[in-house]
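Reopening this one. Same input as before:
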Amino acid sequence: MMPLFSLPPEIEDVQQRMTALARDHLAAEAQRRAGEPSFPKDIALLLAEASHGRLTVSKPDGPATGLLAAATALSALARVCPRSADALHHLNFAATLLLERHGATDVLQGWAARLRSGDAVVPVAITEEEAGAQAAALRSRVSASGGRLLLNGSKTFVSNAADADAFIVYAAFGDSVEETGAVLVEAGQRGVRRETATFITGERWQSLTFEDVDVADEVILFRHGGFTKHAGYFDIERIGHSARALGVGWCAYDAAVAYASDRRQFERSIAEFQGLQWKIAEAKLGLEAAELLLQKSAALADRAGLGPIDTTLAKIHCNRAAYAACDHAIQILGARGYREDSLVSYCFRKARGYMLNGGVVELMLTRVAEHAFGRRFPQHPV
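Same output, byte for byte:
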């Protein structure tokens, strides 16, 4: 069992190794890397070569693995180089887990292996114009026609799609929510159209349109089960999102402490001003509490299986604490933090995105209320 107020030695080792790698190889270029629109595939390859590409795969020997190890590594990396943490997440979560857990064919397992090695970029495409928070209302559909299975529909806000080799696309195989499935579509397939846009972080995303795209049996992850059967995947994803948010918050916090220690005004360090001290204290308070919630949710998931309420609480607080820490950091750095090319500014924009990614905070709060009252609060109209 995990000690109450410290990480197990094997998890501390993961944290220390990741921090050392980040400081030795990534810290110097963290600010420049934050402004790059492309997926950091070079970082994915570096991390995979350093044996950080299988953190979520349980194995009897070697470095510690599991969700606590992965979350700890993600947070440690994001604290030093926030953009590089996206590569680590891609290696260990998202499409990688979906393919390994539901890919029953050699083709799908081949893609999983490529992802773990850092050799491929495969975003998960779920969101549609009319199906954002209500993800089960998908209009993309796989249907039979002339002896073939064809995918038609569209997706939007697909992160890293501009650099993708393939996509995992959620689509309906029938008329009920339980007939929701997922297929792998290669980026260059006939019938795939892509339009590129940019988030406020500078990172690119795409809208995808599928017109009679052939779907072979060997690229179908599952044909039914809907979001109920595969809800655990989304909870695992939230652990990854929470860990990156936490690391981004710590990154901004570290920058604010360093700046306040060096900056002088009125013939003394600005760290001596109480108003600034309180901002640092509030940021640390929020981040420390968020870290404990994240560690609890990940450790429980490793030991006894996912606890959706623990994951939800961790996501809410990691999102909020990170955003607050980044906001305080910008106030402390002033115009230097507000510059578009500053790392703190990037952390602020990144933290804001995490409050949308993987389930908006408001829906997460409703989920907590449902647990508290022991009943559902359906959002569908009566």
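So the earlier flakiness isn't reproducible anymore. For the record, The chain has a mean pLDDT of 91.
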